[in-house]
Design a protein that fits this description.
This protein is an alpha/beta fold. Helices cover 46% and strands 15% of the residues. It contains 8 helices and 5 strands.
């Protein structure tokens, strides 16, 4: 979050981005966090958190949609190298969430494998419909973050790490307008 404060203020340090760091991580890596975020070109985690080479495992899918391969990718850091943090990072004005919302609302399937994204986001859509609100797409985007983070926290392989305090799974939301990341749920106490 300190890196995000630097991003918001424009006082960037660009840590761990030089040939010395490249040499240091060439043989092994020990990222301090894993980020599951959207594919959106405006939401690159390494920039939003002002981090560098070897600092983060990063997985990006449309609307933070998950399936077995993505879940396995999220599990990799905590289960193989004791990475203590997983962040599910949604964002403002998410195109994938908006497309899924409209597809489900209007009962108009999207083409190709986009249907898989819509299916993965359906629980968030259903929660957004129940909750209502002024902007149902934003409600759905936040619901997707919270549901995905909760699923990862209760995952059979990650839950024991969460239970003993070795892993925090945090849901967060990025404002395209301000650059600020807001923690929604799961922050360690």
């Amino acid at each position: 979050m300190e890196g995000n404060k630097r991003w918001v203020s424009g006082d960037l340090q660009h840590p761990d981005r030089d040939p010395n760091r490249r040499q240091f991580v060439a043989q092994q890596q020990e990222p301090f966090g894993a980020i599951l975020s959207c594919i959106d070109s405006r939401v690159p985690p390494e920039l939003l958190f002002d981090t560098g080479l070897g600092d983060l495992y990063v997985m990006r899918t449309g609307g933070e949609a998950v399936g077995p391969v993505v879940t396995g990718s999220v599990e990799y850091g905590p289960m193989t190298s004791d990475t203590p943090l997983v962040v599910v990072l949604g964002h403002q004005r998410c195109g994938a969430v908006e497309a899924a919302y409209k597809s489900l609302r209007d009962d108009k399937p999207l083409p190709g494998n986009l249907r898989a994204i819509v299916k993965a986001l359906q629980p968030a859509y259903e929660q957004a419909v129940r909750e209502g609100g002024a902007d149902p797409v934003e409600t759905m985007a936040r619901a997707q973050v919270e549901l995905t983070a909760a699923d990862l926290r209760s995952n059979q392989d990650l839950a024991p790490l969460v239970g003993k305090g070795a892993l925090a799974v945090v849901g967060a939301y990025y404002s395209l307008d301000t650059g600020k990341v807001e923690v929604l749920a799961g922050a360690p106490s």
